[in-house]
What does this fold into?
Amino acid sequence: MESNNRNTAILLVYCPDQRGIVANVTEFIDNNNGNIVYLDQHVDFEGNMFFMRLEWELEKFLIPAVKISDYFQTQIASKYKMQFELYFSVNKLRMAIFVSNMSHCLYDMLARHQSCEWKAEIPLIISNHETLKPIAERFNIPFHIFNITEENKADQEKKQIELLKDNGIDFIILARYMQILSPMIIKEFEHRIINIHHSFLPAFPGAKPYHSAYKRGVKIIGATSHYVTADLDEGPIIDQDVTRVSHKDPLETLIRKGQDLEKIVLSRAVYLHLHHRILTYNNKTIVF
Amino acid sequence: MESNNRNTAILLVYCPDQRGIVANVTEFIDNNNGNIVYLDQHVDFEGNMFFMRLEWELEKFLIPAVKISDYFQTQIASKYKMQFELYFSVNKLRMAIFVSNMSHCLYDMLARHQSCEWKAEIPLIISNHETLKPIAERFNIPFHIFNITEENKADQEKKQIELLKDNGIDFIILARYMQILSPMIIKEFEHRIINIHHSFLPAFPGAKPYHSAYKRGVKIIGATSHYVTADLDEGPIIDQDVTRVSHKDPLETLIRKGQDLEKIVLSRAVYLHLHHRILTYNNKTIVF
Amino acid sequence: MESNNRNTAILLVYCPDQRGIVANVTEFIDNNNGNIVYLDQHVDFEGNMFFMRLEWELEKFLIPAVKISDYFQTQIASKYKMQFELYFSVNKLRMAIFVSNMSHCLYDMLARHQSCEWKAEIPLIISNHETLKPIAERFNIPFHIFNITEENKADQEKKQIELLKDNGIDFIILARYMQILSPMIIKEFEHRIINIHHSFLPAFPGAKPYHSAYKRGVKIIGATSHYVTADLDEGPIIDQDVTRVSHKDPLETLIRKGQDLEKIVLSRAVYLHLHHRILTYNNKTIVF
Amino acid sequence: MESNNRNTAILLVYCPDQRGIVANVTEFIDNNNGNIVYLDQHVDFEGNMFFMRLEWELEKFLIPAVKISDYFQTQIASKYKMQFELYFSVNKLRMAIFVSNMSHCLYDMLARHQSCEWKAEIPLIISNHETLKPIAERFNIPFHIFNITEENKADQEKKQIELLKDNGIDFIILARYMQILSPMIIKEFEHRIINIHHSFLPAFPGAKPYHSAYKRGVKIIGATSHYVTADLDEGPIIDQDVTRVSHKDPLETLIRKGQDLEKIVLSRAVYLHLHHRILTYNNKTIVF
It folds into this structure.
């Protein structure tokens, strides 16, 4: 459901599974005059967990937006030991983009932002290199350079966090950012940092995956967007896609074909995150 | 959800959308001690229609299986002007396979049947040719030959219908059956005849789609499984898949690659039908 | 083979098939000290036609670049009734982009151009609307507006052709340009106009293919890049790609997902054209 | 090129790259009145290696089939330090199938064999379990059971090799055979044992890849056919394919969807091997 033009509330929920959750939650919305425009639930029978995404129109909803969270906690969530997140479609998320030297993902995101495909704000771009500054300027987005060395890394990340907070950043995109984030910044933005890895994870984690794929002689290459966790390339996978290669394709062709995958797979993850369609549980994603 | 080993009831529902349907239906199951193991709903906002597939365990369900339909009609369906279908996972569906001269789809289905991938019975195979009789014999399935000519078609189809009814056939698979069914038999088995068409519909409907695809120089070929309606190759699409071809591929390669698609796409549709995961509305399918 | 950094000649050839062509042509290159870095041939047995793409390094090649065509015609092509095209990797092709209101393909191409993924020049953009002018300005590319009405179409296209010629344009990209070109301009740039059609041709030719796809209930949508001919959406197909959709996807989602396909499939076609990897014969493409 | 009905010779060649190879080889065929129906070459610039597959009609070829190898060695191969393999389309390869308990790949191959999609002979099936014996009987193919324990493994494999040799087996298919072959048998059938691994290698090598894929939360699963080498799941990859999964898919669904991939990807590899379209070099395949 493309909800760009509706004034809705979006509820993401998970809790131990038991009878009656759907009935109770939808009744809560229903009784308060909310018109449900999206409901999808998922039960993980193995782990006995219940997950749901619910979206409803706020127009005639009796509970004022600012109080929904409170009411829902009291009347429903406490009863089922629920974890929940509540979002409103009117709120534009603010995203920071981290880049290094490659422009394909950055261009793709800026084009989507510019053409209003995404309801988001991009207050700033952060880089460890000057290379892509002209692109940021072309799109009138502040570009902040943080040179990273082994010595200054902790300091620089502290400054980055400060900058991100000052700008009210909701989430971070690593658009082929060639630096490993330290746990400090990862913790600060838990499940709010999206990375694009240029392989079909868990194949070829770490550096130079196209080189490894070429060497191994795979017939298909891929790209993976995932939330960043403290374990490199081990975070919850949001989306993946692949494309065929053959013995005819030298390394450069793998890289070229892969870049098309990277930008599409990354932008799909951003879209899903922007629309609050991802729940993370047990290092896996439920994508509604 | 793979429900092969559960004793469940499956409910397929559609009706005009309004507030409270999910709450009401899940409450009905809940209040009668049913444990919901699958719930997926879909709202078509354009047509203002609500669709749902619900599956729940019968073990402790208070209403006896034979009375569920009656109770649900009275307490829920009538209230919402619902159309609904109710199935039980213990009931094996009985399918008839129609073939002509090509064996790839037939073999694929018999193998799945034989290895118990499918919970179904195949009481008979019908053909307009003798060609595949040895395969039927190999798998000990009665093979009925109905030669079809322009003159005898109506008569033969009457006999086919009789045979199908005598054998309690629930649904029909056209596994590359090279005869157009007449409206009589289509009506008798409405939304219960699945065909595999060897193209990416609506591209290349009718006869010899690979020849047309080859002539047109497409770079991708496909296959489409769909319910048969009176309009040739125009029925609700259940599944489609595609594979790449190139200028290097002569017509025979298109046919060979296409056959792999056909059998997989057909068998996927059969699987979905067997598990009651397809709702048909407005000549489209909702596939849960 | 990615030939970005080699000084090579590229030969595209086709002729009636007969014994010895490959031997003769490679001997010709070989005898003149050319190092073949790419050879791919294709024989269409049905039509008895031979096709080949050959690329060789010019560094030590005995025949000067300007005379290769002449020599090849005399010594080889005339013998085999060959049609051939000869290109040099040092020559940057000049492309004109035609757009209307949608920016996704334009942005994608400008980003590739800007990041030097493409060895091409984009001297101008032509549009029938003002909408995308700011993008052209952002990338410092002249933007020419030609309002098209039924009355002025012939005149405007004459002016367009003049402008294209004055700028030494080699080929044209229709990047979701919402005007049907008249035969005059098509003839002027035969097999040098690439269009992106937002469907899996030959399914859904003409206007509003996503609307038609949505109405038909397809499970996969596609995009097709092709050379433009006088028959609308009937020209030789260069590339196609597809993506899955489901009953959950409203029309807007089809459009959104489709746009990602469009830009990738169009840019792939441009890449192939820029590298002289496409031969057109009998309204089909041989893509090396 | 589907060469089922032609009387052709097939030559697979590799050697250090140098000028004139294609010219020389095609001239050799040409001068001896061979009509080339397939030629594809590949140059690995990184490793400076040349690879070619050549197929020509034997009808009017001057050199008798039994002497081609000798003549080619003398006149061409020795000159270029070529490795080459020569095959004749009239010779049916003899394949042995190794299975354990799962039938999907076995059924798929027997169906292709039975319907003459494959020009091959299947003189025997080998298993470490009795489970699939009825299928072998259904298709009238001798079924040999070799129980394997840690103690008897060496002995049993010796007997297997003897049986394979006695039956003139050309190559072996491991159709979900759940035993690791020892180096002895691998060496005996070097690059002539094809395995299907139920993951997208190099992701999830070894045991229980679907369990690992499920645990990792991947969004795409795959299957890989490869030649078996002494390093488990590290041999040259022949083909791979993938399919989408989601959080909705429990482990059993991954397994079910994966099995469709496995049988198709394995059968594609067998087809390629049967048509001598695979060259192995440096633990990678060149697939013509």
